[in-house]
Amino acid sequence: MTGRSSFHFFEDVWDVVKLIPAGKVTSYGAIASYLGSKQSSRMVGFAMNASHTRKDSIPAHRVVNRNGLLTGKHHFGEPDLMQKKLESEGILVKNDQIVDFSNHFWDPMIELSL
DNA sequence: AAGGTGACAGTTT
DNA sequence: TAAACTGCCACCT
Fold first, then answer.
1. Nearest nt (C1') to A61 (CA)?
2. d(C-alpha A5, C-alpha A46), whole Å
3. Smallest CA–C1' separation from A36: which nucleotide?
4. Is the separation of the CB atoms in A101 and A25 below 8 Å?
5. Which of A61, A81, A91, A103 could form a cystine bridge with A76, CB 3.0-4.6 A?
6. CB of A80 within 8 A of CB of A73?
7. CA angle at residue A56 from A72 to A85, to 5 degrees?
């Protein structure tokens, strides 16, 4: 490694997001932490924004902030589309917040560490 | 080419 | 206690 920062942060983020099972959700910070840059949670959100430019279907609706709040719902075309998708997977959302968030939380650091 | 932006999170004042 | 600042790194103009 001669200082070559070939970090495809976005691709790594998308790869993790695609591994999130239906009915589960995770946070930006959890993904960033899994990638080794827990302070880069903002980039994870930005990667979600860029996910629209990808041909691959990124389940961005399974990624919320650490409060379980659907902060990115505004980027799904329709404001309620994110909530609909989550509810369609069995996740109950109330007032833009995931009910029983910790019960549906999927930590890549743990699940992918096996 | 350089600067500003962004769907967060943690720390400090 | 709550509010504000900083860190982080790729993408867009």
1. B7
2. 19
3. C8
4. yes
5. A81
6. yes
7. 45
Q: pLDDT tens-digit profile of A76-94?
A: 988 899 999 999 999 999 9
Asked whether residue A27's C-beta has any atom of DNA/RNA strand B within 7 A, the reply is yes
Residue nearest to nucleotide C7 (CA to C1'): A39
What is d(CA A47, CA A101) in angstroms, rounded to the nearest whole number? 22
**Residue written as tokens 């369609």?**
A88
Ordered domains of chain A (ranges, CATH): 6-111 (1.10.10.10)
pLDDT single digits (tens) A9-53: 888 999 999 999 999 999 999 999 999 888 889 999 989 988 988
